[in-house]
Model the fold of this input.
Amino acid sequence: MARIDLQDLAHSYHPNPASDADYALKPMTRTWDDGGAYALLGPSGCGKTTLLNIISGLIIPSRGKILFDGADISTLPTEKRNIAQVFQFPVIYDTMSVYDNLAFPLRNRRVPEKEVDARVREIAGMLDLGRDLSRPATGLTADAKQKISLGRGLVRSDVSAILFDEPLTVIDPHLKWELRSKIKELHRRLPLTLIYVTHDQTEALTIADQVVVMYDGGVMQSGSPEDLFERPDHTFVGKFIGSPGMNILPCRLDGTTATVGDQAIAVPNVGRPTGNGPLELGIRPEYVTLAPVGIGLPVQIKRIDDLGRSRIARVELSGQALIATVPEGASITGTEASVLLDPRALHLYEGGFRRAPTQEVRPQEVHHG
Amino acid sequence: MLTRRFVMGFYLVFLMLPIYWLINMSLKTNAEIISGYTLWPHTLTFANYIKIFTDSSWYSGYLNSLQYVAINTVLSISLALPAAYAFSRYRFLGDKHLFFWLLSNRMAPPAVFALPFFNLYSAIGLFDTPLAVALAHCLFNIPLAVWILEGFMSGVPKEIDETAYIDGYSFPRFFTKIFMPMIASGIGVSAFFCFMFSWVELLLARTLTSVDTKPIAATMTRTISAAGMDWGLLAAAGVLTMVPGAIVIWFVRNYIAKGFALGRV
Amino acid sequence: MDKTENNKAWWLVLPVFLVVAFSAILPLMTVVNYSMQDTFGNNQFFWNGVGWFIELLDPSTDLGGRFFDALWRNLMFSGIILAIEVPLGIAVALAMPRQGWTVAACLIVMALPLLVPWNVVGTIWQVFARSDIGLFGAVVNGLGIPFNYSQNALSAWVTIVLMDVWHWTSLVALLSYAGLKSIPDAYYQAARIDGASGWAVFRKIQLPKMRRVLLIAVLLRFMDSFMIYTEPFVVTGGGPGNSTTFLSIDLVKLALGQFDLGKAAAVSIVYNLIILAVCWVFYTVITQMDAKGRRS
Done:
């Protein structure tokens, strides 16, 4: 129930940051809408946990402001922020029952016991903890404990944002999916702003409407899962999102023709470079199709990987490694083949950053799965 | 925050004051000590320390103490290592009772053992040797070492052992080359506690020695003479008994919390 | 951890078993032997059966009287020092700095009393509490409160209790500190988010997590105070009168002072049995707690 504004927010663990490199979190300004579901995604050390700790109040930012519904809360202590948080490892109060665990935040705020009871039972019902209420919390499984931690955040009616810090780390793989859909379902039912930190792209892409990809203390791109997949703003996003990640090929550009090695590729729909930094061509493996010799650009096949539902080919184009999709039913013999590139899925990167065309086009339907 | 600093500050002052007073006294002349209390030595003297370092009946006390403490520490750890390994890895006949029996010896009052030890070690001709005191201290130090080491060893996954055996290591080679380095901090912590409890114990050490291996703690009773108490000398000897402990603490300061974390002291 | 059944493991335990048995069982056998005999001196002993034990357990006899007096004194002493050292130790652990060089400094100063030989602990306080040359005694007397531990029983008790607090509170504090250090930061963060007060954090997070180490601290402190000998012996020698004669002091007087071997041996056995019983209770509680902790 809150809009979150980050205004020129930055943080450094050094007392006197001199250069950009000293910042664990580089200056950023953005707005997260009330009721949205946001994921902070990135490898460890990218600053996502620092950002989360700033929102939760554990860290006071060294620069800039953070606003909840327009009110500056940058220096408010955690307990005054109306946030809830679920941690990497389940936090439960060992000596208390499940019921008392859930009631704890309300009782601390002197909510009348009748209201506490109603609220606890409602939330326990939502989380399927109804039958465990009287049990001691200490003997439960990790996923039940994680639900209790989540429940302690949800019982409070004043919570404006709920933060998740890689909450599925200790959950068994087959229960991860279940807990993930539970979180998604709760977000639909309750009017909460949800911020979810993870390094797992599947988690981020399934839970969030907006994914914020971070790297080295900065936001590389913020957008819907589709944006991140189809139009990565940076080669890092291209490589980090998707499995396998985007193909990145160093190139030269002449008008609407790019040259990779000794092969010319038509790029009808890319932006203009400004002359800063080396040029690269990016295309997702899903839009690179392996074909018999002579049809497309000539390549040498290095290896075929069977992923179960599909196959990918690791090939070489003018000495550059490239990953291509093997069409269903195609049989491959020998090492010589060619690839077809979907021209609408080609992106031009300059110094790592995407040069967008004046008009975006959508690539063809992906022809598998 | 302020309360915390106050509590800590108060406690540290409480700990340091008596020690300061001892150091203060050791640097005074007896005349100054007896003439009433002074907060710092007005007539600074090192005579008390010089006496201890030059009189062999004094400094040999320190050497005797260090001797049996060292023998005890080595003995305790080397015997406890295989036993702790057995307790951490295997179930065997009577293991739980044996473990409890060992631990109960850590709790046994030395006063009960003083006289029987005197008889026993006299009978086998070990009386007044460092070995007698070292063996007597094994009574509580071996159980302690087994307890601490077992805790550290249980933290090492069993797969390590199995992998080593598959790779063709014999037990002794695996134990000394692979396993012991892995629990090095545990060995350090238990050696620290063995050293500590052997160093501070007096009742048994005094009962089992007479002339040749008299521990420093017992030598200190000599400061009462016909001329009255030699307070300065007593204080200096006391200060010097704290030095080995302080040195040992300095070396293990980073492990102390870890050893205590196991709750096995 | 799953342990394998292997009786050959006995070979690994055997050296420890032999050395400890040599130090524990042989002397105990001597003690049991003595406890059944009486002597007229000159190393001539005769069979006395359980006579000493009957006398010992009857408070109206000489032997029984002094044993029970010493036992109550000792229990009172243990009770007092536990009541002071446990809360104080927890408070000190909570007051430990969070980080920086001060942590190491505090740890070193705190560990120092633990490594002072026990007779030197006695010497330190013997000096420190004297009213003529000691700071503490002089200050207390200066405040107009008569204080003399060699003549006044209350002064003697105050000195000995203070000495024990000085000597051993750090052990409780270090154990508690280790227990506190094992609590992940997330617990404190969660508690803040849940709006828990400082007291609630202590009651619901810190204390439960310290339960095991505290139990061990109580066990160790109870045991060690129950067999305390050297420190009070140096300070008061058990006096004035018998006011600070604890069990071990009384036992040594009986055995090495009066060479009343039969009586001393009987006291030793009862003394040892009490300790064994208390030890068993704690051991059972702790192992059960560990087993429960492993299940959850």
Notes: Chains B and A do not touch (no CB pair under 8 Å). Chain B has a mean pLDDT of 84.
